[in-house]
Predict the 3D structure of the following.
Amino acid sequence: MNYKAIIIGGSAGSFQVVTKIIASLPANYPLPVMLCLHRLKHVRSGFVEALSIKAQMPILEPNDKDPIKSGKIYLAPANYHLYIELGNKFALSTEEAVNHSRPSIDLSFFSAAYNYKQKLVGVILSGANKDGAMGLKSVKDNGGLTIVQDPNECQVPTMTLASMNATNVDHVFSTNRIIDYLLNLE
Amino acid sequence: MAGSLGIVDTKKMIAVIKEAYGLDLADYTLTTLKNRFIRILTYFNIGLVDNFVEQVKKNNINYEELLDVFMIDCTELFRDPSLWRELREVYLPDISKSSGSKIWMASLSSGEELYSLLVALKELNLSNGLRVEASCVSQLRIDRIKKGGQFDMKKMELGDANYTRLSGKFEFSNYYNVNGNKAEMDATLLNGVEFNKINISQDVQNKSFRFIMFRNVLIQYNMPLYERVVRKLIDSLTIGGYLVIGNKETLEHCEVGKKMQLVNEAEKIYRKRID
């Protein structure tokens, strides 16, 4: 396996897509999957439960300094930024919102790109702002693999179009092709 | 914040800040440092880390200003209303039963956490019953907090929404005045609060508290500093005293954390064990 982690960013219109993607990943999927999705700051519970309904892999909101493990899906918790730190651990942060967002997709992607370099797959889905575009660029600049959901299929294509403007993405895929690709990563 | 800082530059900045000001940032998480250092360089209009080092050495950078830019506002007024409800209904009344109970706000940043506590105490009529000590590493921030905090109106709207979710007793606007585009909290809430300038990661303080709040600060630390500060917090608690940390923080990553019992999992309220 050439990769160590998958990170997925999404906002408006991404919930159903994320649900479909994670429902397709088997319980023994060999990588950790990190989700940085825009969410209401003050609603702490319910999101993991909603995503878990169809998922075969366990989904959790990591605590600060938790180790990152394969076969798990990690959701950025409400009102915190989610970073990947040295030593294969998560770090959380209450730094300023970026692009009006905490969690910010850009910040999660920056730290993941720095830590995993070419061993990272970054995916940007439907969303109504440009958070994530610079993050995906940094995945690409660090040698990682970049995928965006086909803007024609997105409920709101702003985020994917901004990402395609920011960097020369490797793949523009429909949801089904994203799933196929992630299932057949080598 | 789109730029990125390499590890060599980060280390240079850590070294010169320690040398010039005695502030040791070596055990902060790398991501935090990189983000905060880019913020500092942007704020002081400096493009190259070597120029920053030179400016610090020439004494051209004011320490308090640098610290102010570095510090993270860990919170918002009444961040996590469900926690504040628990404190109001269970924990603050509980600690007020023992005489002479003291509360330690161990590391202020913006003062929002302190003002939230003071509003809660006032609404419980406990302002005179419980002594509050508030520590902060920055004199500039202590002075700002003493003047009511100077909060952006946007932050006050957030505070207002949180206060409503908490079902506070009054209108939140009773507690602040608007001055231009900033809001100042009612500074009379601070009556009796003892402020001290302490850096919890470096300074020693031998006191005992019944209740300590330290939310969303441990997340800025690497493991060795996390462990040192957790130990210091626990040592500063009376037996049976409470420690509140951020709801996605945990004491489980270090051995000394076992001295604490998790009494409220959702809100991360710990109690110091008797044994």
Chain B has two domains: 7-70, 81-272. Residues 7-70 of chain B form a domain with the Chemotaxis Receptor Methyltransferase Cher; domain 1 fold (CATH 1.10.155). The beta strands of chain B are 102-105, 131-136, 151-152, 176-179, 182-185, 194-197, 209-213, 237-244, 260-264, 269-272.
